[in-house]
Design brief:
By secondary structure, this protein is of the alpha/beta class. Helices cover 42% and strands 13% of the residues. The strands form 2 sheets. It has a 6-stranded mixed β-sheet with strand order 4-3-1-5-6-7. Strands 2-8 form a two-stranded parallel ribbon.
């Protein structure tokens, strides 16, 4: 207040600075803040390392009903990149728990990826595959009408990824029946190197195979969770995830392939490119948080 009084008295930043023993830039900053209607006596909160992880801490406290310990929270956010001390984490967790118990819960946020927490899988319509007849031998035109004329058949793409490392698996298959789903899930989890906690399943799962899909996931210890994008309003009984964390299922593939083997090779090339060095490094870190796989693949009783 003495700085402002000195400025009001002299009308000069430099004169006020000489009277109060501060830099004239400080006088200018406080004066302009007051003129804008701000409170010059109120200090701005300093940015802290923990700030970026507070939404995750609040989510963990909320999901656990306020029971999670600060040591467990520290393990999780350290794996996510937090470089502060456990003392800082304990303070943040204590504040989040106090807010939770007081009923001051934050608005529902999208799930924030953490190592080993969730994977997501979707079915996507795949390209046509020719029937291996005359047109393929003759090198006919690769379009959908030609595929139908030569006995081409539709395919499906099993698309899966780990939410935190964003490691992707794409498998072309002829159908979406439960036995195919079981093979795809087993291959995917063994490629991941373990089992995460949740399997996020969207509306693409056929209703006729939903119960069997749940049984298959439960065999591997996966909790099946329906999800909706965070932008979908009033999503009932779903977990919301941020749009940028949604599994992209649009692949740069041709509309027609000569064989399923050729399509598999294209999918392998795509995943090799998508799973770059950074993704592989994150997968290595995430594998520490994945649970062991069953020794044998799922087989229906």
């Amino acid at each position: 207040m003495r700085i402002l009084e000195s400025y009001d008295l002299t009308g000069s930043y430099r004169a006020a600075a000489e009277l109060t023993g501060v830099d004239h830039h400080t006088v200018k900053r406080y004066t302009e803040l007051r003129n804008r209607g701000g409170d010059p006596t109120r200090r701005r909160p300093r940015a802290k390392k923990i700030d970026a992880f507070l939404p995750k801490i609040e989510e963990l406290v909320d999901r656990s009903g306020g029971r999670i310990g600060a040591d467990k929270v520290h393990q999780k956010i350290t794996a996510m990149g937090f470089q502060g001390t456990d003392r800082t984490t304990r303070r943040a967790v204590a504040a989040a728990k106090a807010s939770y118990r007081a009923g001051q819960r934050k608005p529902a946020r999208p799930w924030i990826p953490e190592p080993g927490f969730w994977c997501q899988w979707e079915w996507a319509q795949g390209p046509q595959v020719r029937g291996g007849g005359g047109a393929e031998a003759r090198g006919g035109a690769e379009d959908s009408s030609g595929a139908e004329a030569t006995g081409g058949r539709s395919t499906w793409l099993w698309c899966a990824w780990l939410g935190w490392s964003r490691y992707r698996v794409v498998l072309p298959v002829p159908d979406t029946e439960p036995p195919t789903l079981a093979r795809c899930l087993d291959t995917t989890l063994r490629t991941f190197g373990g089992v995460p906690t949740h399997a996020l399943i969207g509306p693409s799962v056929p209703a006729r195979g939903c119960l069997e899909a749940i049984r298959i996931c439960h065999y591997y210890g996966l909790t099946v969770t329906a999800y909706a994008p965070a932008t979908v309003p009033d999503a009932v009984r779903t977990v919301r995830i941020a749009d940028h964390d949604l599994l992209p299922v649009h692949l740069p593939l041709r509309p027609v392939y000569h064989s399923l083997a050729e399509l598999r090779e294209s999918c392998r090339e795509f995943t090799d490119e998508a799973n770059d060095e950074e993704v592989i490094h994150r997968l290595t870190e995430e594998r520490r948080w994945l649970r062991p796989l069953p020794a044998r693949p799922y087989s229906p009783e």
